[in-house]
Amino acid sequence: MRENKTSLLFLCTGNACRSQMAEGWVRALAGDSIRVQSAGIEAHGKNPRAIAVMAEVGVDISRQQSTRLEPEMLEGVDLVVTVCGHADEHCPSLPEGITRVHWPLEDPAKAAGSEDDIMAVFRACRDEIHARVQALLDDLAQNSARAGE
Question: Could you confirm whether 125 is annotated as catalytic?
């Protein structure tokens, strides 16, 4: 029997930065009220800078796993959010009933310059993902409230 809560999947190229941060934000902001997971078209391992910038705001993503998308991960998913162009272009066909949304986020792992410059890019990405996740959670809550009326 399927749990009666929304299920999200964040999809990225390597499940190293953006999708990991999005998963972490949902866990931090929604707790157990939403089922969340992240995956990549490939699994590249977690980026230590992504872990560091999330820790700066009190969100621990160090225990999350970098995983490759497997078909069974889509079972029971309500919404797939692609967080990069490559994942959007290579997202597999989704089963009927799954909504797909694309967030065109820049890859902070491609940032160049000094360590301070690179970390600033990671922080900006973290903050953009935070805002997008909060807006998504607000929309889901409003839709749930309307459905319950």
Answer: no
